[in-house]
Inverse folding.
């Protein structure tokens, strides 16, 4: 598995790097890390000398980062680029056939900040591969249980389910699918589809009819002692609703649980 881990050399980025190292070792894959620096649009008139200072600082920080990384992991691919981090992420994903992006979050509000306008949210919306988001205070430990929260018709979503299965199999984890039913949903078809796609990967399927989607998912994650929350993203709807800003007070629990963002097929 080829794994990409952007870094800004912060404590939270360092935490995400530890998760990326673990995944790379488990999958016998390659690890790619990059740091980008960019000039704010309002400061485009900065002199060449100041840009050179920014580049030099970035390269010095990456040199320190690489020494630590090599001591823990071995040889990893690292680079420093000037430009927009979202654009650079997309370019590296394509160039190196990246399978998974691992990113940290920052701020006391954890997932709320990540999902509302941050780089991680932008990456999720701009790449077609899974993005593993590591909130502050996450603990690197073997994953035993993944809760996939969805209100989608899963039987047409084979690609994200296959990717979730591959991720779970790295840890021997169980997948608990929690489906929020809508009127007219056919749970039988979803269950049959999941049996076929997930195969021997341990899993369970629970269909819940609940008007309050957010509370239903939170309760299920807590009661099942989930290690990772997975969700299939779509441009509008469940994913955004689940982590809407009004939901801030309920995110305290999830701020310690990594989130695996999968993508709905186009």
């Amino acid at each position: 598995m080829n794994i990409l881990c952007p870094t800004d050399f912060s404590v939270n980025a360092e935490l995400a790097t530890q998760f990326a190292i673990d995944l790379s070792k488990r999958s016998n894959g390659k690890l790619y890390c990059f740091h980008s620096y960019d000039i704010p649009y309002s400061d485009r008139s900065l002199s060449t000398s100041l840009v050179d200072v920014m580049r030099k600082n970035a390269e010095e920080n990456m040199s320190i980062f690489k020494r630590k990384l090599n001591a823990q992991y071995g040889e990893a691919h690292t680079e420093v680029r000037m430009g927009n981090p979202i654009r650079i992420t997309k370019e590296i994903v394509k160039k190196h056939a990246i399978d998974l992006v691992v990113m940290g979050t920052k701020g006391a509000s954890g997932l709320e900040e990540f999902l509302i306008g941050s780089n991680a949210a932008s990456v999720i919306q701009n790449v077609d591969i899974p993005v593993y988001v590591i909130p502050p205070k996450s603990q690197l430990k073997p994953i035993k249980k993944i809760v996939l929260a969805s209100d989608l018709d899963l039987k047409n979503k084979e690609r994200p389910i296959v990717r979730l299965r591959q991720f779970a199999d790295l840890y021997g984890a169980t997948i608990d699918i929690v489906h929020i039913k809508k009127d007219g949903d056919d749970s039988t078809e979803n269950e049959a589809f999941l049996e076929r796609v997930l195969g021997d990967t341990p899993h369970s399927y629970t269909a819940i009819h609940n008007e309050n989607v957010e509370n239903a998912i939170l309760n299920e994650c807590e009661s099942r002692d989930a290690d990772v929350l997975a969700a299939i993203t779509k441009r509008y709807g469940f994913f955004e609703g689940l982590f809407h800003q009004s939901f801030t007070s309920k995110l305290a629990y999830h701020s310690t649980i990594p989130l695996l963002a999968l993508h709905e097929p186009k």
Notes: Residues 65 and 239 are 34 Å apart (CA to CA). The beta strands are 2-6, 30-37, 77-82, 100-104, 131-134, 145-150, 174-180, 203-208, 228-233, 259-263. The first helix runs from residue 11 to 27. The radius of gyration is 19 Å.
